[in-house]
Amino acid sequence: MADVRKELARVLEDACDEVDRRLGAFLANPDDVETVHKLRISIRTLRSLLTFVSPLLKRRRHRLLQDDLRSVVVETSRLREYDVLLRQLRELDVPCAELDERVVCLRELERNHVVDVMRGRHTRRALRRVRRGVGRVPWRDRVREEGVARADVRALFRELVRVVDEGSATADRADADAVHTLRKRAKRARYVAERFGSLLGEGAAAEAARMKGVQDELGDICDARVNVMMAREFPAEGLSAEARAALEELVARNQALVDAFVTGVRPVC
What we know:
Layout: H1 5-28, H2 33-53, H3 59-73, H4 77-89, H5 97-119, H6 121-135, H7 141-146, H8 150-170, H9 176-195, H10 197-200, H11 204-233, H12 241-263
Helix pairs in contact: 1-2, 1-6, 2-3, 2-4, 2-9, 3-6, 4-5, 8-9, 9-11, 11-12
């Protein structure tokens, strides 16, 4: 049996390197919406890869790695939500300059917070621990003794895809948590297919593309639900009637998308 642990470890280290690069790019240009987006993707990718191989890892060590990564990426969530909200505002057919300006101000405050956190001691220490953990992958004792076969990796991937496909067919579309969980699993399957493709074989690229389609559809719905929540909770005090109308239009557009997803009936344009 050919032991593929070195290949698994190499991919994990490459993903860890990417987190470092994306963090540097964000800190160099935090006003670019793509830098925070790509930083989030890099952390989610590493988390997905670790989750995928978690049956092969010592449970507590894996959990600590995930805790550190999550503690960093969660700090970027609100900033990304403002970016998505701004993008939608700028696509509206109603005047919304005043509302746009208000959201930009909120984004700037959040950006300053995120930059401070990403430059701070907690992030440095957390990512340093992750780097050490990935550099010495905490394989289970059984795995250290017996190794990991390519067939084992493919079996894990088949199970991951099966769970996504089953969830796509049975998930309650009205259940926001269920849809969000399904989206995360589809992303995980995509990232695994992309990064471990050399171990998974010829069909990996096609599977990655298929999972990206699932992820994108569910991502639009998750974003729509967040936009509805943010618009409804937006501090409307002092806003003009025009700005309030833009908020109402934002809610209506996103709610229509969610309703169409839940019912399976496309909205009439």
